[in-house]
Specification:
Length: about 240
């Protein structure tokens, strides 16, 4: 099992290379894993990935690839060439797309699928997206497709993790955003859970951005989250 530090993936939700490196260096050497999403990657480009790798960090590149199978394959192959540790696609692209994307992944890289965003609630799912049933049903259905396609796991809310693990197995990764320390503003997240409860539910990795980035003391905020994981791992 990974160390508690490695299970916290810091979401680098900033818009410049300078901001990203400043945040990261303020958390080293305790920080082990970061997420580079659309805002940062689209503004800075792949060069940042190399800088982060040089600092010894693991990287989850979060671009949610979603296109026709051949385009998805080529996109994932390009991202795989950057040496990232986790890459994601959107499960809504379907089984064939995910299978093709899986073919583009090297042995030491994990490919995971996004199920439903943590900003999606019941009303949005049914009324705006036109998907019948519950959010949990939709997440589990997409997760089943991801496993059938050979993906290593999914991105989901911590609220679905326990059911997902029970059905698809403990080895199927659950990477969970929507994690907020007790008392934190949930902002645009709707399906949330505290770090301790998310780990107890079975989350493998916690993706956390604003509670650390916006803290008056980011290193202390990071350490507090790690301590919650250690409590669960030690059986406290």
């Amino acid at each position: 099992m990974y160390s508690a530090n490695e299970r916290v993936i810091l979401a680098l939700d900033v818009s410049s290379k300078q901001e990203a490196l400043k945040v990261v260096k303020g958390l080293l050497p305790e920080l082990r894993f970061v997420k580079v999403g659309m805002e940062l990657f689209f503004s800075v480009g792949p060069d940042l990935i190399h800088h982060l790798k040089d600092l010894g960090l693991k990287i989850f590149i979060d671009l949610k690839v979603h296109d026709i199978p051949n385009t998805a394959y080529n996109a994932v192959r390009s991202l795989n060439g950057l040496g990232c540790d986790i890459i994601n696609v959107h499960c809504a692209g379907g089984l064939t797309m995910m299978k093709r994307a899986r073919e583009a992944i090297s042995e030491d890289t994990k490919l995971i699928g996004v199920t439903q965003l943590t900003s999606t609630d019941q009303s949005m799912l049914n009324t705006e997206l036109g998907i019948a049933g519950s959010v949990t049903d939709s997440v589990l259905n997409l997760a089943r497709l991801a496993k059938e396609a050979g993906l290593h796991g999914v991105v989901c809310s911590p609220q679905e993790v326990e059911l997902l693990k029970a059905e698809l197995g403990k080895e199927f990764l659950a990477v969970t955003p929507g994690v907020r320390p007790l008392g934190e503003d949930t902002q645009d997240q709707k399906r949330v859970m505290t770090p301790k409860k998310a780990i107890q539910a079975g989350s493998d990795y916690l993706v956390i951005g604003r509670p650390i980035l916006k803290s008056d003391n980011p290193l202390r905020a990071f350490r507090d989250i790690v301590a919650q994981i250690q409590e669960v791992d030690s059986g406290e």
